[in-house]
Amino acid sequence: MLKGIPPILSPELLKILMEMGHGDELVIADGNFPAASHAQRLVRCDGHGALGLLEAILTLYPLDQYVDRAVALMAVVPGDPVKPTIWDEYRQIVKKHEPNAPEFEFMERFSFYDRAKKAYAIVATGERAQYANLILKKGVIVPG
User: Fold this and answer.
1) How far is 129 from 117, CA to CA, in rounded Å?
2) Are 53 and 28 in contact (CB under 8 A)?
3) Alpha carbon distance 32, 94 (integer Å)
4) What percent of the chain has pLDDT over 90?
5) Which of 2, 30, 107, 142 gives 132 a disulfide partner, CB atoms 3.0 to 4.6 angstroms apart?
6) What are the start-end ranges of the E strands in 93-144?
7) Separation of alpha carbons 6 and 53, rounded Å
8) Cβ-proximal residues to 23 (8 Å cutoff; 6+ apart), any chain
């Protein structure tokens, strides 16, 4: 155990966060996402929700300040009546850690899948909320 590291972050996930560079992307996937078939690197976080993982990850992970949108969500499929309430909670967590972060990007389902396949890693969670998938683009630590 180490001081200051959220205990929800496993050694495997910490290693991946450290390996990632500026512009690399991390997917936090809900329990329905086809993570194993899409991942270059897969971190299993079964039993953990996406909110707790997002909160913990953003304590260490800077979002990219040089892009229009550093966070992308999977948009609701047209005709699906689901209203994802988890998105508001995502906004609160992101704003807490990155007060100047722009609004989220919303991606069509299959475009999201294609982008996820190119991500540095996918974190498979036990999140049960629908449309709870998000992509985080890593930024840089600014000295000072």
Assistant:
1) 21
2) yes
3) 23
4) 97
5) 30
6) 105-107, 121-125, 134-137
7) 9
8) 64, 137, 138
pLDDT digits (tens, 9 = 90+) for 85-143: 999 999 999 999 999 999 999 999 999 999 999 999 999 999 999 999 999 999 999 88
The active-site residue, picked from 22, 38, 48, 97, is 22
Residue 21 has pLDDT above 90, yes or no: yes
Percent of the chain with pLDDT over 70: 100
Sheet strands side by side (includes 134-137) = 42-45, 121-125, 25-29, 134-137, 71-74, 105-107
Is 80 in contact with 113 (CB distance < 8 Å)? no
Over the range 103-113, which residues count as b (16 or more CB within 10 Å of their CB) and which as e? ebbebeeeebb
Looking at the predicted structure, is the pLDDT value of residue 78 above 90? yes
Average model confidence (pLDDT) for the chain?
Answer: 96
Q: For every residue of 29-55, which 3-state class applies, written as one string?
A: ECCCCCHHHHCCCEEEECCCCHHHHHH
Is 48 known to be catalytic? no
Pairing of strands 121-125, 105-107: unpaired
Beta-carbon contacts of residue 78 (< 8 Å; ≥ 6 apart): none
Residue 144, both tokens: 């000072």
